[in-house]
Write a structure and sequence with these properties.
The chain is of the alpha+beta class. The protein is built from twelve helices and eleven strands. The protein has two domains: 5-120, Phosphorylase Kinase, domain 1 (2-Layer Sandwich); 132-347, Aminoglycoside 3'-phosphotransferase, Chain: A, domain 2 (Alpha-Beta Complex), CATH 3.90.1200.10.
């Protein structure tokens, strides 16, 4: 066991760390690094909540790994993507290598230990002024992922263990958001006038979307693209590029929200990370890659509607969790979060430029 790793993690922001969780991390690290008697922890750097870069002195070498603490269902999903689904589709190497994993004794949390991509020279694809060759490599990798899984038999297993982003995704998130918001009234909760205003405006918007759910489902079925494996959270921060003499090597990280649905769900997420004027060119790269693989895509006008449906479903989903937290625990941040989501609804415009 590495002495002091529990304190290092707590000092880096992981509060309430139980001893079984530290034991599980040590087991995962031993799988990744070998026997830990010769490993000395040099640094613990928080990357994001529950994700840390750990640097060790192992003999005469310095090794760096990324440790991530996850809920069991997310851990299992990431493991399946990396060790089964992508290799079976011929995309082995499109993720960081999973070097070790272990669950704490109650089974509440699972630690994954991954190779540190930055140690091999990889870096996040920037959303501002990306290198054209690196951007094109990422787009081609995403298109390849979508093309390969559109007809792959393992998609049935992806559906079993992943999220459902199909035509019902929009309607179910809108409906659940409405149910959660409706509970934010006396006797469950006594909001202020301003807080009640946020609740009521969101409810009005969501009821309008609910009335349009049938049309959006039909449009998504017709124009959303082939049903396939989706990354589910395709921000540029989850796309890493490793420079190479030939084609840059692309790695996709953080598959917690992986699932099955129309390819447009991933595409809209990715496009919205870039400035509006850059999106048509990026979409054209994706379109060319999909069509080279034998697929077809609709015109931009139809795509704008399915992209909008994907974003609205995400926003509705983000209403649910602060509303539930308010109902259960009356958290101080709940209405502030709901007000932020209302702002996202208001600010949402076409993903692609509309024709004159």
């Amino acid at each position: 066991m590495i002495t002091g790793i529990d304190r290092a993690l707590a000092d880096s922001g992981l509060q309430g760390l139980e001893i079984p969780a530290c034991e599980a991390l040590n087991i995962a690290l031993e799988q990744a690094l070998g026997p830990l008697g010769s490993a000395k922890l040099e640094a613990c750097e928080p990357i994001k909540p529950r994700v840390f870069r750990l640097r060790f002195e192992v003999g005469s070498r310095v090794r760096s790994v990324v440790a991530k603490r996850m809920e069991p269902q997310h851990a299992r999903r990431n493991e399946l993507v990396i060790r089964r689904w992508l290799p079976e589709s011929g995309l082995n190497g499109a993720t960081p290598e999973l070097l070790g994993l272990a669950a704490d004794e109650p089974g509440h949390w699972v630690w994954h230990v991954y190779e540190d991509l930055e140690q091999s020279g990889a870096f996040e694809l920037p959303s501002r002024d990306p290198d054209p060759a690196q951007l094109a490599a990422v787009v081609r990798t995403v298109a390849d992922l979508h093309s390969r899984f559109a007809t792959h038999p393992v998609l049935a297993e992806c559906r079993l263990h992943g999220e459902d982003y199909g035509p019902s995704h929009f309607a179910s998130n809108v409906r659940d958001a409405i149910h959660a918001l409706e509970r934010l009234r006396p006797p469950h909760l006594s909001p202020s006038e301003a807080e009640a205003g946020v609740r009521d405006r969101l409810l009005e918007r969501l009821h309008s979307l609910q009335a349009d759910a049938g049309r959006r489902a039909e449009t998504l079925t017709a124009w959303g693209g082939a049903e396939t494996l989706l990354h589910g959270d395709l921000w540029t921060t989850n796309t890493f590029v490793e420079p190479a003499s030939g084609e840059p090597r692309v790695r996709l990280i953080d598959w917690d929200r992986a699932g099955v649905g129309p390819a447009s769900y991933d595409v809209s997420t990715f496009l919205l990370r870039f400035a509006p004027e850059a999106r048509p060119g990026i979409l054209q790269l994706y379109r060319e890659a999909i069509e080279a693989a034998g697929g077809r895509m609709p015109a931009d006008r139809e795509l704008n509607l399915v992209f909008e449906t994907a974003e609205l479903a995400r926003y509705a989903n983000r209403v649910i969790w602060p509303a539930l937290a308010l109902w259960r625990d009356q958290v101080a941040w709940g209405f502030e979060e709901l007000a932020a989501v209302e702002g996202w609804f208001i600010a949402l415009g076409p993903v692609l430029p509309e024709p004159a």
